[in-house]
Write a structure and sequence with these properties.
Number of strands: 3
Radius of gyration: 34 Å
Largest sheet: 3 strands, antiparallel
Structural class: alpha+beta
Helix content: 40-55%
Shape: rod-shaped
Length: 120
């Protein structure tokens, strides 16, 4: 009887080992574990980064002004520096707070696109 127990335990151990090996192979897909991403500091905002956030709102106001007047909201109606008094209050609630840093322009190429003076 004692020999039968050891034989059963031996077969059970072999069976358990086989199951663990099969499970290990099935779960391993051959790729290495991805490393944990490291935190990267957020860069300080630059003038361009802070100006870009207002671009869509200004572009919409310029487009609306042009659709109504067939001119750009500049001193002479041609591409150039934006005259905010032509946009505020009818097309925009107010002058963008960052205008002194951004120097928004109506671009000539492509015409009507809002851009920053130093990037146009």
């Amino acid at each position: 009887m004692d020999g039968k127990i050891w034989r059963i335990l031996g077969y059970g151990g072999i069976l358990l080992l086989a199951v663990l090996l099969v499970v290990g192979f099935v779960r391993y897909d051959g790729t290495a574990a991805e490393p944990t991403p490291t935190a990267t500091p957020t860069p300080l905002p630059t003038v361009v980064m802070s100006c870009v956030q207002a671009r869509d709102t200004i572009q919409q106001a310029i487009n609306d002004y042009n659709a109504e007047h067939q001119l750009w909201p500049t001193a002479d109606g041609q591409p150039g520096d934006i005259e905010w008094t032509k946009l505020v209050p009818d097309f925009m609630a107010g002058i963008p707070a960052n205008d002194s840093r951004c120097e928004w322009q109506v671009n000539s190429d492509p015409e009507g696109a809002v851009c920053l003076q130093n990037i146009c």
